[in-house]
Amino acid sequence: DMSAGVFKEDIGLGGRGGYFDTFGIIRDIMQNHLLQILMWVAMEPPEDMSAAKLIEAKVKLLRCIRTLRVNPKECFLGQFGQSKYKVGQKEFSEPGYLDDETVPKDSRCPTFASLLVQVDNTRWRGVPFLMTAGKGLDERLCEVRIRYKQKPHNKLIAAMSGKRLRSNELVMRIQPNESLYMTTQSKVPGLDTMAEVPGLKWVPKPTVMDMSYDNNFTGAYVGDAYERMFLNAALGDQSLFVSADELVEMWRIFTPLLHQIDEQKPE
C-alpha cells in the first residue's frame, strides 16, 4: 500500500547553522542516506550479493524513480521553531533555527522535508514512497515502515467488529534500538468475542511480533555504521559504497527540486 522512510533528530544544530544553511535537510540527509535506504527496500533481488550485482540492482531501481520537483501534493518543507519542554519540575527551552546566530534571519533553508517518491516499474508503480527527515523534532528515530494493502476479507472483519481495521505493517528500525517487527490485527482471545456466536462481535487488536536485537541477540555487538564502512574499505569490498552510476542518478532525481528551492525560497 505504501512505504515510509523516516529520519528524525531531536536536537537542533548546536551552532552549526551557518554550515547547515548552505545545504539544508534534503542535501544533508535525503539525497544520500534516505535514498540509499529506499534502494535497499525497493530494489529487485540481485543475482548475488557481490558489489557489482548490488550496484546493478540499485542503479536499475534509481533509473525508474521520477525526478522530484516542488509540488504542494508531493513536497512539504519547514523549519523548526523555538520549543519548550519539562523534565520533572524543570522547564527547558530550545532555540529555533532562526535563533541561531550563525543563520541569516531571512533564511528559507528547510530543516524539515517530506517528499513523495514515485517508482515507475512493474512492481512499484502506484505505490507511494514517503521520505521524511528533520532536525529539532520530538524524537531521535530512523526507520522504514511498510504498510500492506487491505484485503477484501478485512472489510468483512471490520463489519463483524464494528471497527475500521488498521493495515498490517512491517517496521525496520535502524536507530535507536535496532529491531524488526510486524504489527498485525489479531482476534482478542475469549469465548465472548467469537464471531460465530450470534450477536457477538469479533474484536481485533494490533499485535506486535518483535525481533528486537537486544532481546534476540543478547550480548551481541552491533557495530557503528562507520565501523562497517572502514572494515569493508580495508577488505576492498565495495558493496556498501556508492558507485558513480548511482551518484549520477541520485542527483538527477533531486537536482531540479533543489534548484527550485534555492531559487524560489518557498514559504
From TrEMBL:
One Gene Ontology MF term: NADP binding
InterPro entries assigned to the protein according to its UniProt record, in alphabetical order: G6P_DH, G6P_DH_C
Keywords noted in UniProt: Carbohydrate metabolism, NADP, Oxidoreductase
Residues annotated as domain Glucose-6-phosphate dehydrogenase C-terminal: 7-265
Pathway: Carbohydrate degradation
EC number: 1.1.1.49
Name of the featured protein: glucose-6-phosphate dehydrogenase (NADP(+))
